[in-house]
Amino acid sequence: MLDQWLIGGILIVMLALFVLDKWRYDLVAMMALLTAALLGLVPTEEVFSGFGNAAVITVAAVLIISQALWRSGVVDSLASGMRKIGDSRWLQLIALTSVTTLCSAFISNTGTMAIMIPVALQLARSSGNNPSKLLMPMAFGSLLGGAITMVGTPPNIIIADIRREATGESFGIFDFTPVGLAIAVAGLVFMWLLSHWLVPARSGKTKSESLYDVSSYLTELYVPEQSEFIGKTLYELESRSEEDFVIVALQRGDTRWSAPARYQRLEANDVLIVEANAETIQQVIDGTGLELNANEDIDDRFLKSDDITVIEGIVGHDSKLIGRSAADMKLRSRYGINVLGVAREGQKLGTALANIRFKPGDVMLLQGDAETLEDIFQRFGCLPLAQRSLRIGSSKKLLLPLAIFASSIAAAAVGLISVPVAFSLAAGLMVLTNILPLRELYDSIDWPIIVLLGATIPLGSALERSGAADTIADAVVTLSQGSPEFVAIALLLLVTMLLSNIVNNAAAAVLMAPIGISMASSFGASMDPFLMAVAIGAAVPFLTPIGHQSNILVMGPGGYSFSDYWKLGLPLSLLASVVATIMIVLVWPMY
């Protein structure tokens, strides 16, 4: 009994730290694992056994394959036809959610959304529709799509491997399809018919090309011949202000430099195009003797040149920018990148942009060299919002990656080779054929997820070994006593779904699967319907933005607040629960 209390306490603290989000979830999971090992809840020889688990290897392989398919332009080929669907918001919604759902059944949700968000924004802006009406249904569609196949989402891979360990036989790739496809179809139809009234409209992004009206913050400053700043660097000038004061261009005669180097020295009669508010401009003028020179309206022509560009990007869920500021990262001094704006939940943040600490879902407006920006987005885990402008390597060689992927699915589906071997082999072939360059191999793996899985799998075993899973299962069985067995399945599904909205859905699957197995044992029933309930519950966290990366990615571009998600997510969750419970009972008999 003591072991049950100890493992329960460790897991409760771990889940609480997940919710508080003060430390990254992989670090929290690893510390929970080591604590359990020190208390003797996890045998020494099993502490790191999770990292050799077939589910972890399969997840890594699927992520590599997804990145290869993403680079090859498979999803782009589907997205390219979107321009032909017209200006009808309803038709745009149907097309965008359908393609997103379909692709997410085979490619990672995040990779699919990285391609589809810019497509949706472009469609919305060209037609005058509000993108907030499109982006949330797309994110939820990506979650529905992930439930369709075993490779669609990590929880399905985990559940399949847990079944293999328990029975000696894994779920097949398409064993999830009857239930997953049913909730996907029901969910899509529901969103097509009712999302217009359930998704809040957010203004400010339908008429312009971005979240920011940058031109209203641009001002010309003239360097007179008697200025004390002649011969001094742009860095020295920028340092005179404690507020945001960014030199975005330098005009010297007929020559103009966009995003000029900070070491460039000023000359008489130079004209500086700066981004700052009125108070900061006045402070700089008073302190330097520069003159206001705005004789005409300034637009963003000063922001761009042949080599310099301005682009929006989203801070990803595991970005290296999270918790750090542009000043911390030295984006200007080290990379020559200007931060022109930062928006959070659809609202542009005010002063001191260089000191704003980024959060997942923040939308940044960056100016700099195009190649450098591309490197910044890849290096720091951000996603560009300009459709395909920063993604390279899309050679449109579609047949080879599709053939490799289809062959791996077919080989695993007919039992020729196991799923981990099939997808590891496919990942290797993607690299050997240069569909995915070797230098991008390890970058394509979401390492925090891998560490999370490697750490939580032994914790899930400890939950089962200690008897805590049986205790929780008995409580659920007692709660549903006298009711049909499907009530217990529905309860398990709902609890898992609720948990996946506040912690990583892979962790939710690992922790709830032993409870599902114990519930099946208490009923003397097959574990399959209970495991399937856990898989579906973990795959569809619709209630919060933190439930899944897809939800976070649309938060900034859609201008959503935290409370917006449940308005569509709650009825969609209830619908998915009802449809899933019915289909599980029909497809996976209890006895």
UniProtKB/TrEMBL annotation:
<feature type="transmembrane region" description="Helical">
    <location>
        <begin position="398"/>
        <end position="425"/>
    </location>
</feature>
<dbReference type="InterPro" id="IPR006037">
    <property type="entry name" value="RCK_C"/>
</dbReference>
<feature type="domain" description="RCK C-terminal">
    <location>
        <begin position="206"/>
        <end position="290"/>
    </location>
</feature>
<feature type="transmembrane region" description="Helical">
    <location>
        <begin position="475"/>
        <end position="499"/>
    </location>
</feature>
<dbReference type="GO" id="GO:0008324">
    <property type="term" value="F:monoatomic cation transmembrane transporter activity"/>
</dbReference>
<dbReference type="Pfam" id="PF03600">
    <property type="entry name" value="CitMHS"/>
</dbReference>
<dbReference type="GO" id="GO:0005886">
    <property type="term" value="C:plasma membrane"/>
</dbReference>
<keyword id="KW-0472">Membrane</keyword>
<feature type="transmembrane region" description="Helical">
    <location>
        <begin position="5"/>
        <end position="21"/>
    </location>
</feature>
<feature type="transmembrane region" description="Helical">
    <location>
        <begin position="51"/>
        <end position="70"/>
    </location>
</feature>
<keyword id="KW-0677">Repeat</keyword>
<dbReference type="Pfam" id="PF02080">
    <property type="entry name" value="TrkA_C"/>
</dbReference>
<dbReference type="InterPro" id="IPR004680">
    <property type="entry name" value="Cit_transptr-like_dom"/>
</dbReference>
<feature type="transmembrane region" description="Helical">
    <location>
        <begin position="568"/>
        <end position="588"/>
    </location>
</feature>
<dbReference type="InterPro" id="IPR051679">
    <property type="entry name" value="DASS-Related_Transporters"/>
</dbReference>
<keyword id="KW-0813">Transport</keyword>
<feature type="domain" description="RCK C-terminal">
    <location>
        <begin position="297"/>
        <end position="383"/>
    </location>
</feature>
<feature type="transmembrane region" description="Helical">
    <location>
        <begin position="445"/>
        <end position="463"/>
    </location>
</feature>
<feature type="transmembrane region" description="Helical">
    <location>
        <begin position="135"/>
        <end position="159"/>
    </location>
</feature>
<dbReference type="InterPro" id="IPR036721">
    <property type="entry name" value="RCK_C_sf"/>
</dbReference>
<feature type="transmembrane region" description="Helical">
    <location>
        <begin position="90"/>
        <end position="123"/>
    </location>
</feature>
<keyword id="KW-1133">Transmembrane helix</keyword>
<feature type="transmembrane region" description="Helical">
    <location>
        <begin position="530"/>
        <end position="548"/>
    </location>
</feature>
<protein>
    <submittedName>
        <fullName>SLC13 family permease</fullName>
    </submittedName>
</protein>
<keyword id="KW-0812">Transmembrane</keyword>
<feature type="transmembrane region" description="Helical">
    <location>
        <begin position="179"/>
        <end position="199"/>
    </location>
</feature>
<feature type="transmembrane region" description="Helical">
    <location>
        <begin position="27"/>
        <end position="44"/>
    </location>
</feature>
<dbReference type="GO" id="GO:0006813">
    <property type="term" value="P:potassium ion transport"/>
</dbReference>
